[in-house]
Structure formats: C-alpha cells, structure tokens
Design goal:
Layout lengths: L7 E11 L2 E7 L13 E4 L2 E9 L2 E7 H6 L10 E5 L1
Antiparallel strand pairs: 1-2, 1-6, 2-5, 3-4, 3-6, 4-5
C-alpha cells in the first residue's frame, strides 16, 4: 500500500511512442528496486504505473494516451525528474 510519501527521485530516461500511448524507461536513482516484481505498481509523480520490465537501476512502464492526457506526465520529456514511491 502506498503511504503517499515520496521515497526517492528518478529521471525519465527514454520514451517510445506507439499507437495508444508511450513506453517509458525510468531511472530509479538511489531507490532500491531489488525486491520489485513485474506487475507491481510504482507511483511516479503521483500516478500509479505498472512495472512491465526491469533492468539494472531502471524499470519500464506503459502509459496510455488517457494517462498522458489526464495527468501531468504528458508534459514530461526525457531527463525530467520524477518523484517515486513503492
């Protein structure tokens, strides 16, 4: 369960558009993601995203067009600082 407390900051590493949304790789900075699992929800700047892939120090999420349109995440570009909570 989310506490609402930011536990770390990360950066938007890459975005890849596709029909219906975007795939994001998010660098997790010092946030320990070692116990994270596929399908886990991770709060990214207040928006719950599902982790669909992991790589050392980063995870990937898929954002729908609606999520991008209805949240502030649609304004983010590669390099943007993001608040993270697990």
């Amino acid at each position: 369960m989310f506490t609402g407390l930011v536990t770390g900051t990360g950066r938007l590493a890459t975005t890849e558009g596709f029909e219906g949304g975007q795939r994001w790789w998010i660098d997790t900075g010092s946030l320990d993601m070692s116990a994270s699992t596929l399908g886990e929800s991770i709060a990214v700047s207040g928006v719950c995203l599902t982790a669909v892939a992991f790589a050392p120090g980063r995870f990937q999420a898929v954002l729908s067009e609606e999520t991008l349109r209805r949240s502030q995440l649609g304004d983010k570009a590669a390099g943007a600082v993001l608040n993270l909570a697990r």
